[in-house]
UniProtKB/TrEMBL annotation:
Domain Integrase catalytic: 105-228
PANTHER family associated with the record: BLR2054 PROTEIN (PTHR47515:SF1), LOW CALCIUM RESPONSE LOCUS PROTEIN T (PTHR47515)
Organism for this UniProt entry: Paracoccus sphaerophysae
UniProt-listed InterPro entries: HTH-like_dom, Integrase_cat-core, RNaseH-like_sf, RNaseH_sf, Transpos_IS3
The name this protein goes by in its record: Transposase
Length: 228
């Protein structure tokens, strides 16, 4: 499907290089003369475009639906169709994973208070049964006390399941000051973004390809594998 912008360019090219009239150029390009003469009255989206680019650079694994959630959280009234249009016009895309990934973003250390519930770390451990069926365990570790707060095993754990388990854990343990995790699809889903907004919990994602930035839970995962 040819967009109106492309048809306008085609008409302008025919008029400039072949000397055709506007009527004849529109007939050849299959464009309506009213559409060719149309001048957009839409206000510029400079501020929104800039904020969208900033969020896309901060969250490199987020597509336009997740960026839309973040913008709505900041009070942006635009609908998802408008965000999608600006996302396409700005040439933004989700960066594909590569075999060797470089650390992206800042390397500033995260300051942590020396008290329980100051920061939790989340990660998955994967294994399989003797029959070959795979399963995973969601581990939640308190980075200060080094205590394993939860170890949830299942064959499939979605973002909504993670949100439900965290809600139940907060009811028993209290709310954490921050949660740290990698950029797995379950942990960057819309369900998790919504959960963070509702419970007012800061969620920090480590740089891709740098599991040592989530070292507390990674260390626990290694000990769990040794025991199992």
């Amino acid at each position: 499907m040819v967009t109106p912008a492309v048809k306008r360019e085609a008409v302008a090219h025919l008029k400039a290089h072949l000397g055709l009239s506007e009527r004849r150029a529109c007939q050849i390009a299959g464009a309506d003369r009213t559409m060719v003469r149309y001048q957009s009255q839409r206000a510029p989206d400079t501020a929104l475009r800039g904020r969208l680019r900033d969020l896309a650079n901060e969250r490199r694994r987020f597509g336009y639906p997740r960026l839309f959630v973040l913008l709505r959280r900041e009070g942006e009234p635009s609908g998802i169709n408008r965000i999608y249009r600006l996302y396409r016009e700005e040439g933004l895309t989700v960066r594909k994973r590569k075999a060797r990934r470089k650390a992206l973003g800042t390397r500033a250390p995260i300051l942590i208070e020396t008290r329980a519930n100051a920061r939790w770390s989340l990660d998955f451990v994967h294994d399989q049964f003797a029959c070959g069926r795979r399963f995973r365990v969601l581990n939640v570790v308190d980075d200060v006390t080094r205590e394993c707060l939860a170890a949830i095993p299942d064959t499939s754990i979605s973002g909504r399941r993670v949100a439900r388990e965290l809600t139940a854990l907060i009811e028993r343990r209290g709310r954490p000051g921050m949660i740290v995790s990698d950029n797995g699809t379950e942990l960057t889903s819309n369900a998790i973004l919504k959960w963070c907004a509702e419970h007012k919990v800061e969620w920090h994602y480590i740089a891709p390809g740098k599991p040592m930035q989530n070292g507390f839970v990674e260390s626990f995962n290694g000990r769990m594998r040794d025991e199992l």
